[in-house]
Design goal:
The complex is a heterotrimer. Chain A is α+β, with helices and mostly antiparallel strands. By secondary structure, chain B is an all-alpha fold. Chain B contains 15 helices and 4 strands. In chain B, the strands form 2 sheets. A two-stranded antiparallel sheet of chain B has the order 1-2. Chain B has a two-stranded antiparallel ribbon with strand order 3-4. The longest helix of chain B has 33 residues. By secondary structure, chain C is an all-alpha fold. Chain C contains 22 helices and no strands. Chain C is elongated. The chains are: A alpha+beta, B mainly alpha, C mainly alpha. Chains A and B meet through helix 1 of A and helix 4 and helix 5 of B.
Chain lengths: 155, 355, 430
């Protein structure tokens, strides 16, 4: 080892600093994504088999609301009888989205005037099949509406 | 500072011995030295798997109604979730590839010969475990491709004589691929395999440290050995290779993120072009191309039996190739190796070409 | 498989047993009709075996009278109540003996209407029959005589998908129809692949799509009058009808004697012959609206408020379509790069497309004030999707930036390590 020639020494020193610098940078480049990953995202967990639609009192008798469940639209209807019912909202005719029709107190598709009764049964117009039902639960404490997939929930 | 820390530890645990040992450690230099890196690459990728796998567990949820959604959640809602998930998938594939290359180099260098038989056996066991890792991990996102690939994959167990049906049910947790299968695969993937694999890996590395690195038949025992110190020369080179590997991993993950696809729907018909992971493709293709009956035995049964025998031969290879432990090269094993490699390559390519 | 078996097996067994039972009853009863007629009327006997009437236990005698327990021709004595085969002019009455009798029909099929004869009398077919024209359609022309199947059976001549073919048996036969002086191109027009309804019915298998009877009625078949066409269409296209009825076009069309919906929506509308291609209703295109050919608006409007609205709507629809295309491309590109954009895709599907459908419907108000809010809703929904698409493109850029930064760092580090290695090796040699 040549202890007395300064140039290689400074070069070596520079190299060491350079290595430390880039090494730390690389470490930061790895740790940063991990850190961001572990920071909880705004929506805290993936929920798809149920959806909370808020307080039941927001839905007076004779009203309906479209909501999203997973990748499909759903509809919550509260007929004039005050009962809550929920279905997948895609019309069984040509996949339009159905809506609650307050005048007739039933479910109506605007595309071809198809109608379903409040039990989801196709009663007039072109729809060939009833709507697929979902479960409506009113949470005991908060009186909130929770929609869940019906048993064996397949459309 | 570092010196004081070293002294503090050393006065209690005598780690200087380790240091002496690693200073002594050297790597033989010869035409095939570059192949030594593949063991290191495999090890590095295992590290990547452990870290990415652990953090994925923070958000992953198992269940036919939660798995797909949670993986989707990871790659859409969680910052850098896409990166970690893609890295885990890509790294798994690169790891199998690196392990196969590592094994081929060991094979053609006859490094499995006495006294390293057990290093070989632990290595081969780990390769098979890796495949089980891959097979079980593939299903965990519960997407359509994985669902049907698992269905087809587990179905070939049926061909195993006597215990086939039982094995099939054992793997699937029932007669069909369902959420029960998912639970089993998840348990296998994250809590059964990792400790076994880690133990084997420790043993494998321990053997290598105790016996040193093997030299090829030709250069072993003749004249002065050319070597390179492990510390720091080889380790530095290892480090560089790892960094390059890491960058390749990033490249793949950023530009070719692992697709999630659509959620598995057990009631939908199987989509066209269902293929297993590439390292299973040659098995899949071979079984597919076998005639229905050979010598009165069902083709698939025979195929599975031949594959089983092949795997068994791989395990006891060090004891079959007696010549190599006497420093002789048995050309027959080169022929077998090349044939095996060609077979693997041909049927993998066929698997991709033929629908 | 076992599950399906569990369901289908009992059903299958029941159906087969029922069918076998019916056939056995038909064949086994001492029945001189079948004994004699099996030779001369082989086809009739064969058809009758699957006839809906046979299945509920009726026999030859139920319709034709006579006494089957007598083994010779005396069984067909009018004294035994024998009626025989009715003449065409008597067929409606022949069937109506049961089908117009609610009390008789109730035990067999309580929900089946019993007003077919009444309706038939009001149909063009019925009117002509009354005048002694034996060529017109009676019950059996459409329903057949001995192999009558319910409309729900896909092999039935009155199944929704078979109705157009059944009608066309006569109505597409130029010779047969010659003396009536009406066109015979209805089926050709209806079955044309550009006819949305025919395409839906035949190709897409949508049995909710209107066949002949849905516009012309079944038993009371008659073409709807010019004023009533709109009524018929709005059975399904209700919202369009609601908008149209309050639109300035309503009075205008009535005054000109144009058929509301059908005039614009038939293939190649012709002011001189408003019914030229009325049975081919084409899928509406945005090019139908505007101030220049091939726009339909331009046929009547230029330099008036109608032309103004046409210009606005045409521009809006084009812009909406272009941006929709752009949004789809952005999302597709993002998906190809492995980004998850299913939220935006969902919004596109459930909100934008729904809003576009409603927007298109609102055009039928032919009133800018009514139309604009619908445009704004579609526009807002679409913009949010485009923004999501652009955000996805940004995200791709961030990812690439991250990769480049990491690659530079790694390259520098590897280069540094390489130099370090050389230093170590060199200093060791020295």
């Amino acid at each position: 080892m040549e202890q007395h020639s300064p140039p290689p020494l400074t070069r070596r020193k520079f190299l060491d600093h350079f290595l430390t610098g880039t090494g730390l940078a690389a470490l930061a480049g790895v740790v940063y994504p991990l850190f961001r990953y572990l920071t909880p995202p705004p929506q805290e967990e993936a929920v798809v088999s149920s959806v909370n639609l808020g307080p039941a009192k927001d839905f007076p008798p004779g009203s309906g609301k479209i909501f999203r469940l997973g990748s499909k639209p759903g509809i919550l209807v509260r007929g004039v009888d005050g009962k809550f019912r929920a279905y997948y909202a895609t019309c069984t005719h040509l996949d339009c989205i159905v809506q609650y029709d307050g005048r007739a107190d039933n479910i109506w598709c605007a595309c071809h005037n198809g109608r379903y009764d409040l039990n989801g049964r196709n009663v007039s117009g072109p729809p060939p099949r009833p709507l697929t039902a979902l479960n409506v639960n009113v949470l005991p404490d908060s009186e909130e509406i929770l929609i869940t997939l019906a048993e064996g929930g397949k459309g | 500072m570092i010196a004081r820390l070293f002294n503090w530890i050393n006065s209690r645990y005598k780690i200087e011995k380790l240091l002496y040992f690693s200073r002594e450690k050297s790597v033989p230099l010869h035409r095939g030295t570059m192949w030594y890196y593949f063991g290191g690459i495999t090890l590095f990728l295992f590290g990547v798997q452990v870290i990415t796998g652990l953090v994925l567990l923070f958000y992953y949820r198992v269940g036919s109604d939660a798995s797909f959604e949670s993986v989707k959640f990871i790659i859409t809602q969680v910052k850098f979730g896409w990166l970690l998930r893609s890295m885990h998938s890509w790294s798994a594939n690169l790891m199998v590839l690196a392990a196969i290359i590592h094994m081929m180099s060991v094979f053609f260098h006859r490094s499995y010969r006495k006294p390293r038989e057990m290093t070989w056996v632990t290595g081969v066991t780990m390769l098979f475990l890796l495949m089980v890792f891959g097979f079980s991990g593939y299903l965990l996102p519960w997407n359509e491709l994985a669902f049907f690939a698992t269905k087809v994959g587990t179905d070939s167990a049926r061909a195993i004589p006597l215990i086939g049906d039982f094995l099939l049910k054992l793997m699937r947790g029932g007669s069909d691929v369902t959420g029960a299968t998912l639970s089993r695969f998840f348990g296998l993937h994250v809590s059964v395999l990792p400790p076994i694999f880690t133990g084997l890996l420790a043993l494998h590395l321990f053997f290598v440290q105790v016996q040193g690195m093997s030299e090829p038949l030709e250069s072993a025992g003749h004249g002065r050995k050319r070597t390179m110190p492990f510390l720091p020369d080889f380790l530095l080179r290892d480090l560089m290779v790892w960094l390059v590997t890491f960058d390749i991993l990033l490249l793949l993950s950023v530009f070719f993120p692992w697709e999630l696809g659509v959620k598995a729907d057990p009631f939908s018909p199987a989509p066209a072009g269902i293929k297993p992971e590439w390292y299973f493709l040659f098995v899949f293709q071979s079984l597919k191309m076998l005639p229905a009956h050979i010598w009165g035995i069902e083709g698939e049964v025979l195929g599975v039996m031949v594959m089983g025998v092949g795997a068994g031969v791989l395990f006891i290879l060090p004891w079959l190739d007696r010549a190599s432990s006497q420093g002789l090269r048995n050309r027959l094993f080169d022929v077998i190796g090349v044939f095996g490699l060609l077979y693997f390559a041909t049927f993998t390519i066929l698997g991709y070409l033929i629908d | 498989m076992p599950n399906q078996l569990r369901i289908f097996l009992p059903v299958g067994v029941a159906v087969v047993a029922y069918a076998l039972g019916a056939i056995a009853a038909f064949a086994a009863a001492p029945n001189s009709c079948v004994d004699c007629h099996s030779q001369i009327h082989e086809q009739i006997i064969a058809d009758s075996k699957e006839d809906v009437h046979t299945r509920v236990g009726l026999t030859c005698v139920s319709c034709h009278g006579g006494n089957p327990s007598i083994a010779d021709e005396k069984s067909m004595d009018p004294k035994e109540g024998f009626i025989g085969a009715p003449k065409p002019k008597d067929i409606p009455q022949f069937c109506a003996r049961c089908h117009s009798d609610p009390a008789y029909m109730r035990p067999y099929n309580p929900s089946l209407p019993v007003d077919q004869l009444e309706k038939y009398a009001t149909s063009r077919h019925g009117e002509l029959l009354k005048k002694g024209d034996a060529k017109v359609a009676t019950c059996i022309s459409c329903h057949k005589s001995h192999g009558i199947l319910p409309a729900s059976n896909t092999r039935s001549s009155v199944h929704p998908q078979k109705v157009p073919l059944t009608c066309s048996m006569c109505h597409s036969d130029a010779n047969y129809m010659a003396e009536y002086g009406i066109p015979t191109n209805q089926f050709a027009q209806y079955a044309d692949s550009t006819n949305v309804h025919g395409y839906a019915l035949f190709v897409k298998g949508d049995i909710g799509a209107p066949a002949c009877n849905d516009c012309h009625s079944n038993h009371g078949a008659l073409p709807p009058g010019v004023e009533q066409v709109g009524q018929v269409c709005t059975q399904c296209h209700a919202l369009n009808g609601e908008f149209f009825r309050t639109s300035p076009h309503k009075d205008g069309f009535d005054a000109l004697g144009l058929m509301e919906c059908a005039f614009c929506h038939q293939a190649s509308p012709d002011l001189n012959d408003p019914k030229a291609r009325i049975h081919t209703i084409v899928s509406p295109k945005h090019s139908m609206i505007g101030t220049k050919e091939p726009s339909l608006c331009a046929k009547c409007h230029s330099g008036d408020p109608g032309a103004e609205m046409a210009a606005v709507v045409s521009k809006d629809l084009d812009s909406l379509e272009a941006r929709l295309h752009h949004a789809r491309e952005l999302l597709e590109r993002a998906e190809r790069r492995g980004l998850e954009v299913s939220d935006a895709q969902w919004k596109l599907k459930s909100e934008v497309l729904q809003a576009r459908m409603e927007l298109r419907t609102s055009i039928h108000s032919f009133n800018l004030k009514q139309y604009v809010p619908f445009y704004e809703r579609a526009d807002t929904a679409l913009n949010s999707v485009v923004i999501a698409g652009i955000a996805a493109a940004d995200e791709t850029r961030h990812r690439i930036t991250y990769y480049i930064v990491m690659t530079v760092i790694i390259a520098l580090l590897v280069a540094g390590l390489g130099l370090k290695m050389r230093d170590i090796e060199r200093s060791r040699k020295e």
